[in-house]
Every structure is written in structure tokens, then in C-alpha cells.
Amino acid sequence: VQLVESGGGSVQAGGSLRLSCTSSDYKEKYCMGWFRQAPGKERELVASIDNNGVPRYADSVKGRFTMYQDSATRAVNLQMNSLRPEDTAMYYCNLGGTCPKFGRSYWGRGTQVTVSA
């Protein structure tokens, strides 16, 4: 399974970005997740959709980020609003990593998000 992220960029604090994750092999939203990794920090889970279709968010992004699937393109998107400098990181799309029963974990190459003060 190949995952491809897009939509990263540079914005000022308070701005918005929408990240997209597409796959030619997997067209569902279940067990998809968005992670991020800032320089010098561990990779952390930002948002995920479980095998029942329920989205879950890290406390740090609740109320600002929304994870959903675009019904037309089947891309799994992460809408990020009210961005803060601390949201600066490489963002990675993941399949399976948040659902232990999935059996495998797949990663995209990442897309950079930079938020300036």
C-alpha cells in the first residue's frame, strides 16, 4: 500500500491548511491516521479514524483539526485551522498503525507544515 501526502506549506499563526492522503490501493477511512514529528521530538498521533469510523484527536488539536474522508476523491484529509507555531512539524499519513488488528502499518513520506508567529 502506498500513501501519498500533499497540502503542506508555510502559514502564519491563525491560518489554515488542509492535508490530503491518497492511496491507489486503499480507499477506506478506517484505521487511517495522521501523525506528526517536530525536530528533536518523537512522532506523535494527531488524529485517527478507528475501525468503526469514529475520529479521535490529540488534546492539543481538538477543536482545531478535523479528519475526514472526501467522498469524491476518497482522500483522507486533515483540515487544520487556527494553526499555531507549535503545530510546525512533518506530517505523516498512516494506515493500520492505530488499529492493532489491522496487522501492518504503512506510512507516507510526509509533508512539511511550518507555522510562523
Give your account of this protein's structure.
By secondary structure, the chain is mainly β. 0% of the residues lie in helices and 45% in strands. The chain has no helices and eleven strands. The strands form two sheets. Strands 2, 4, 5, 6, 9, 10 and 11 form a seven-stranded mixed β-sheet that branches. A four-stranded antiparallel β-sheet has the order 1-3-8-7, with no helix packed on it. A hairpin with a 6-residue loop joins strand 4 and strand 5. The chain is globular and about 40 Å long. The model has no long low-confidence stretch (mean pLDDT 96).
H/E element order = EEEEEEEEEEE
> What is the CA–CA distance across the termini?
37 Å
The gross shape turns out to be globular
Annotation, overall tally of beta strands: 11
Uncertain spans, ≥5 residues at pLDDT below 50?
none
The helix tally amounts to: 0
Helices and strands, with pairings:
Elements (H helix, E strand, L loop, with lengths): L3 E3 L2 E4 L4 E6 L9 E6 L6 E6 L5 E3 L7 E5 L6 E5 L8 E7 L10 E2 L3 E6 L1
Parallel strand pairs: 2-11
Antiparallel strand pairs: 1-3, 3-8, 4-5, 4-9, 5-6, 7-8, 9-10, 9-11
Task: Give a brief rundown of this model.
With 117 residues, the chain is an all-beta fold.
Question: Key features?
Answer:
117 residues, mainly beta, 7-stranded mixed sheet, 4-stranded antiparallel sheet, 45% strand
